[in-house]
Design a protein that fits this description.
Chain lengths: 113, 113
């Protein structure tokens, strides 16, 4: 157990729908990162939050949004889902925003039918 | 999306053999991390490197931060069946107040007993 909790573990939904993925960072970590991993692909950086504020943005689609709440948990919202959004979505956390290692959760597998 | 070039893409080796993989970029990075991912799981940190030229070991694993700060290497000695998985490098860029990590494309390792 890495200490980073992601829910749900699996999610199946239809095109056009909206889903929310949730992440609780490791105790003491203030920074949360979201990554997308499509089948047999690498990890694509989506967005980073530090203590409630957005700090870095990757290739996150406009249909996707995220936020980090005062209790430091984060949610990734995916809307108007397309088949190509099917992927593993990983959350990672770190202590700060600088040269810190990332601790990953087990991921949320999204399948869009 | 932005990714680091990682090679080889995949490799099959015999148990007991040594393994080498590397990660290269045209950009300079301040931190290099190496992760291992088992199927359906989140990446797990193997080694973290913070200084150019740094050589760090973790059991049978050894990683180096390239002098140019544009590359990193991971070596696994005397491979065993449980070494099978996908190995990712990650480089951290710093600038304009952001510290996002960019991941490599992954090296898929299969060990033949």
């Amino acid at each position: 157990d890495s200490g980073v909790t992601q829910t749900p573990k699996h999610l199946i939904t239809a095109t056009g729908q909206r889903v929310t993925l949730r992440c609780s960072p490791r105790s003491g970590d203030l920074s949360v990162y979201w990554y997308q991993q499509s089948l047999d692909q690498g990890l694509q950086f989506l967005i980073q939050y530090y203590n409630g504020e957005e700090r870095a943005k990757g290739n996150i689609l406009e249909r996707f949004s995220a936020q980090q709440f005062p209790d430091l948990h984060s949610e990734l919202n995916l809307s108007s889902l397309e088949l190509g959004d099917s992927a593993l979505y990983f959350c990672a956390s770190s202590v700060g925003v600088g040269a810190n290692v990332l601790t990953f959760g087990a991921g949320s597998r999204l399948t869009v039918l | 999306g932005q990714q680091l070039n990682q090679s080889p893409q995949s490799m099959f080796i015999q148990e007991g053999e040594d393994v080498s993989m590397n990660c290269t970029s045209s950009s300079i990075f301040n931190t290099w991390l190496w992760y291992k991912q088992d199927p359906g799981e989140g990446p797990v940190l193997l080694i973290a490197l913070y200084k150019a030229g740094e050589l760090t070991s973790n059991g049978r694993l050894t990683a180096q931060f390239g002098i140019t700060r544009k590359d990193s290497f991971l070596n696994i000695s005397a491979s065993i069946p449980s070494d099978v998985g996908i190995y990712f490098c990650a480089g951290q860029q710093a600038g304009a107040g952001t510290y996002k990590y960019i991941f490599g494309t992954g090296t898929r390792l299969k060990v033949l007993a």
